[in-house]
UniProtKB/TrEMBL annotation:
<dbReference type="InterPro" id="IPR004045">
    <property type="entry name" value="Glutathione_S-Trfase_N"/>
</dbReference>
<dbReference type="GO" id="GO:0004364">
    <property type="term" value="F:glutathione transferase activity"/>
</dbReference>
<dbReference type="Pfam" id="PF13417">
    <property type="entry name" value="GST_N_3"/>
</dbReference>
<keyword id="KW-0808">Transferase</keyword>
<dbReference type="InterPro" id="IPR036249">
    <property type="entry name" value="Thioredoxin-like_sf"/>
</dbReference>
<protein>
    <submittedName>
        <fullName>Glutathione S-transferase</fullName>
    </submittedName>
</protein>
<dbReference type="GO" id="GO:0006749">
    <property type="term" value="P:glutathione metabolic process"/>
</dbReference>
<feature type="domain" description="GST N-terminal">
    <location>
        <begin position="1"/>
        <end position="78"/>
    </location>
</feature>
Amino acid sequence: MKLYYTPKSHFARKNRILIDALSLEVELVDAGNVADSTPEIFANNPLMKVPTLVDGHQVIYESDHIAAYLVRKFDPTDSYQVLTNDVNQLNLRAVMNGVMTAEVELIMAERSGINTQHLKRFDKLRATVTQGMNWLENQADLFPQQPSYAGFHLICLWDHLLLYQMFQLKHPHLQQHIEKLSGFDCVVKSTPL
């Protein structure tokens, strides 16, 4: 199996942590510049994004679909609650994915030279991140106390926000969960530089 990723991608990192937690042998293929528009470097993902998982002739797009595929194939007991149908857990996932996507759009716009200040579209993205993080802080008790996919997701989001320093993180309840997870080998191994 091969996972097409970039070292700083928080979406791909969710998969990398799960792969390491499950002790799976997966080759990591760095796609390089995520602004590149060559489908081949993304394993021919038509969205030209990471992550993409290639397992023989099977190609899987999108981090949560990749996680579900890996768990169905290699972890029938679903040790980290990837396949949950719990609405609260799915809402946590939806908000985290939304915050992550909004942050990436802001980063990519600024990298391409767009002044994102005082433009309604980008103001809304900043509000999405702020409101999303505040919502997660208010729902922090929904994160399982034991290592879980929701927790892996949270630490990927948190570390990415720290890395790019576009937002202040004043969320003590979330930080408690981060501190619990930060020492696990499967988390440490993929910490962005």
